[in-house]
Amino acid sequence: MSVTGADILDVPFSTLADTVLDRLTVVYSGAADPERAAPMRAYMKDVAPFLGLTTPVRRALSRTVVSGLPRPQEADCTAIALRCWALPEREYQYFAVDYLRRHARVCSSAFLPVARHLVATVSWWDTVDLLAAHVVGALVTADPALTADMDAWIVDDDLWIARTALLHQLRHKERTDADRLFTYCLRQSGHPDFFIRKAIGWALREYAKTDPEAVRAFLARERGRFAPLSVREALKNIGA
Prior knowledge:
Helices cover 62% and strands 0% of the residues. The chain contains 13 helices and no strands. Helix 1 packs antiparallel against helix 3 and helix 5 (90-103) packs parallel to helix 7.
């Protein structure tokens, strides 16, 4: 699942990242459960080795890791994310995603190349989808000029980059740029991969919670261009 040839980014100096990583590796590794690790790795299609931490355990440990630490700056977020991504076990990347979700507002548009690196490296839905909705989406909201980057990402050869573009408005609700959403869906309507077809349906289904008539009308016009999976997912909660 790893993407070879992804851009190598410099890790900025950060004393906060030093503290976080020192705590994190000790606390997480000390709670490792090898018996759980093997089935977790298999469930995630061998994307990475696992420590075997369940989500409730991991999040409790994470609270211990960050307890008493100051609010990060953008450079701290970059350093923590990139250093977590360089560690082999998947739970470290989960920590980084949760950390970025919590602190996305401190990151400027200059963080987008970092987000792209995270999406395109050790890629699988478990990290990509959260980065798309909670990090990339937040960056675009804060700086609408980044929609030009999303316009490029939607036609990227890397399916995970394209999936991120499809899903970056997932939490926008009334702020969704519906024309852009529909255009992105059409641009990838013929994609053969399950993860793109599923993302199309998911993005439309989520927007249908805000404007079901717009989604119905869009699919009434364009249904023949989409895979049945995409249509079924899009209409799951609103009917034909």
